[in-house]
Structures are given as C-alpha cells and as structure tokens.
C-alpha cells in the first residue's frame, strides 16, 4: 500500500486524487493547495483526506512515500526537487519543468536518490495511442513517412507558459512513444495575438531520424476543439481523432506505389491504391487510472513509459521550438544531454 500526498487541487489534481484513491495499492493521505476553498471541496468529496495549505507538510511527513505534483509548471522544479531530496518518489504533471536545465537537475537528482520520477504524459496511457504504436511496430503501416497533428481550441489561456509548453507536450510525447524515437531538429513559428509575449498559436515541424517529418499545430485561438493526428506510412495511413467517443482510429488501406521497372521517364508511373477502411476496437479503460497504477508499478521496478528522462526529451523539443520561434523559424538542432545518452 503506497501512501501518497497530492500537491495542487485545481483543475487536474482532483482527477489524480480520485484515481489514486480508487487504486487498491494506494491511499491518498494528504492533499495540499494554496486555496482553502479547493481544500474544503476536496474534504467534502473525501472526508478522511487530510489537507494543508503548506505543501512542505507533505514533504516532511515520513509516512508519505510518494508525492504527486499538479501545480503550475513554474513550481514543478522546486517542489519536485524538495520531494526527491526528502526521499519521496515523484509523479509530476507535464511538462516536467519550465526549463531544460531544471529538468536535467531533476533527472540527475532522482537517479542519485534512487527514486522514481515519472511525468504525467497521459496520452501514452491511452488505448488509442498504444494501438497506433503496436500497428507501427508490427509494420502494418509500412515505413512511416510523416505525421501531422492539430491540438486547438478556444483557450484555456495560460499565464506562465505559452501554447507550445501547454499543448505540444501531449503531441511530442505521443510521437516519441509511437515511433520509439526522438526528433533531431525543430523549426517553429508562432505569434502572441492576445497576451503580450505569450504565443497563443504555433506551428512546429519536427524532423525525426529516417526522414520522418512531423507537423504540429497548437492553438488557444480556434473556434473548434480539434485533437487529430494523421500518420502516413508506405503501406497504410491512419487518422486518430481523440474527440470521437467511438471509432477514434481509422486505418486507410490507401497509398501510392511506384511501378518498379521503367526505362524512360515516360514510363514512370504511379499506382494509387484505394482499399478498405478499418476501425480497430479499443479497450475502454480510463488512461489516468492506468497511469497512476503504472507509477506504483514503476516504484516496484517496472520500466516507465513516461519517466523523468522521457519528460526531459519532451522539454528539449519545447525549448528548441521557443528558440526557433525567437529566430523567425530557423531550424534548431537538438543536442541530447549526457543524462539522456
Ligand atoms: N496530463 C494532462 O492531461 C493534464 C491536463 C491538465 C493539466 N495538466 C497539468 O497539471 C498541472 C496543473 O494544471 P491545472 O490545469 O490543474 O492548473 P490549475 O491552475 O487549475 O491548478 C493548479 C493548483 O495548484 C495550486 N498551487 C499553486 N502553487 C501551489 C503550492 N505551492 N502549493 C500547493 N498548491 C499550489 C493552485 O492553488 C491551483 O489550485 C500543470 O502542470 C498542467 O500542465 C495536465
């Protein structure tokens, strides 16, 4: 039975509290928030929960073995390092930290303290993303050519991070996970239409090894909520719509083949394939429940799907996107630090 303390009871923290409480291997002892109102609300939902406005009470509690952090991003590094230094395992919401330097320090600290550090990249725990990963791994889509994603909505505008740091962690973590790879370079353009100096719209292009391209659109300034990913392979193509309640993935047996033998350019021909569309059945489990159980399994030795190192790889992409936006879209090569070699 793992005893957990949760710091941050705003929008997302209560989901984590609910899921940890519902696991048979965990109990949530204490919840912390700066707002008494939020704490009273949590106490109303779970009367046995202890509450505190000072997160250090959780860090200092010898009974609490693991700390879950769902506070604003700029506070992650400070709270997580205090927790690791106190010998706690840490589950930190995405993105891991506000800067790459902070992320490197946390990963090194977790290693030195021999504690689990996991990042809340929720999508790698969804049935849809795991299905896509399995299809790619089995070669069903052929060689992957490129991917494109749209993660747009009206709001929610953040004050401490731009739209890239808010929304792109989802897509980058998904892409790294399904490709089992990481990008070598990033170019990005973005603009701050509403809040000064905080980009609310951005377009990113990632280059992965093997000529795989990925294009991401992230926006807080869009009339419709769209969560769509297209993966184009040499054999098949796939569209993943996370908004769809049913039929989230459609696999298209479509493609273009080059006729293998030709002597002159006049004989060069393309053959278009228009085949069936299939819709795989997906398990109907709550990703957050799987993610919370996975954290406990990782503490017990399972290799993590979204470790501190995976979280740091995502930060490197976000940081490169920021630098590219500041340089009018110039491509930035990503240097992976020693902690990730
Ligand atoms: N995995 C996901 O899909 C997902 C979804 C939404 C948010 N998130 C992440 O969760 C984190 C929180 O986001 P949110 O939308 O819930 O933000 P929020 O602003 O709604 O909530 C944050 C809460 O943290 C509290 N807080 C701030 N400093 C604190 C401190 N020192 N001690 C205790 N409490 C403190 C605030 O009072 C607030 O209630 C962010 O990292 C965000 O990116 C993840």
Describe the structure.
The protein is an alpha/beta fold. It folds into 2 domains: about 1-120 and about 290-305, Rossmann fold, CATH 3.40.50.720; about 125-285 and about 315-340, Dihydrodipicolinate Reductase, domain 2. The chain is built from 9 helices and 15 strands. The protein has helices spanning about 15-20, 35-45, 55-60, 75-85, 100-115, 125-135, 165-180, 285-300, 310-325, and strands at about 1-5, 25-30, 50, 65-70, 90-95, 115-120, 145-155, 185-190, 200-210, 210-220, 220-235, 235-240, 250-260, 270-280, 330-335. The chain has a 9-stranded mixed sheet with strand order 14-13-12-11-7-10-9-8-15. The protein has a 6-stranded parallel sheet with strand order 3-2-1-4-5-6, with helices on both faces. Strand 5 (about 90-95), helix 5 (about 100-115) and strand 6 (about 115-120) form a beta-alpha-beta unit. Helix 1 (about 15-20) packs across helix 8. It is globular and about 75 Å long. The two termini are about 35 Å apart. The model has no long low-confidence stretch (mean pLDDT about 95). It binds nicotinamide-adenine-dinucleotide. Nicotinamide-adenine-dinucleotide binds near residues 8, 9, 12, 75 and 122.
């Amino acid at each position: 039975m793992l005893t957990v303390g949760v710091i941050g009871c705003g929008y997302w923290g209560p989901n984590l509290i609910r899921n940890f409480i519902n696991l048979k291997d965990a109990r949530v002892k204490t919840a912390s928030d700066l707002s008494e109102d939020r704490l009273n609300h949590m106490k109303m939902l779970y009367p046995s929960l202890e509450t505190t406005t000072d997160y250090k009470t959780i860090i200092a509690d010898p009974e609490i073995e693991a700390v879950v952090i769902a506070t604003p991003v700029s506070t992650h590094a400070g709270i997580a390092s205090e927790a690791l230094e106190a010998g706690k395992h840490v589950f930190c919401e995405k993105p891991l930290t506000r800067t790459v330097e902070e992320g490197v320090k946390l990963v090194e600290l977790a290693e030195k303290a021999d504690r689990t550090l996991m990042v809340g990249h929720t999508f790698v725990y969804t049935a849809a993303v795991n299905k896509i990963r399995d299809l790619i791994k089995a070669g069903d889509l052929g060689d992957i050519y490129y991917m494109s994603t749209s993660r747009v909505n009206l709001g929610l505008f953040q004050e401490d991070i731009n739209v890239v740091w808010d929304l792109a962690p989802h897509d980058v973590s998904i892409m790294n996970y399904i490709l089992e790879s990481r990008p070598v370079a990033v170019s990005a353009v973005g603009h701050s239409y509403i809040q000064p100096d905080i980009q609310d719209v951005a377009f990113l292009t990632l280059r992965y090894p093997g000529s795989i391209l990925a294009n991401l659109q992230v926006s807080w300034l869009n009339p419709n909520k769209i969560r769509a990913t297209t993966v184009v392979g040499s054999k098949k193509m796939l569209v993943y719509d996370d908004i769809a309640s049913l039929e989230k993935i459609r696999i298209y047996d479509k493609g273009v083949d080059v006729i293998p033998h030709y002597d002159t350019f006049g004989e060069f021909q393309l053959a278009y394939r228009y085949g069936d569309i299939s819709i795989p059945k997906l398990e109907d489990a709550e990703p957050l429940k799987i993610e919370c159980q996975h954290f406990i399994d990782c503490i017990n030795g399972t290799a993590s799907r979204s470790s501190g190192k995976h979280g740091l790889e995502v930060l490197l992409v976000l940081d490169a996107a920021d630098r590219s936006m500041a340089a009018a879209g110039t491509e930035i090569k990503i240097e992976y630090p020693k902690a990730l070699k």
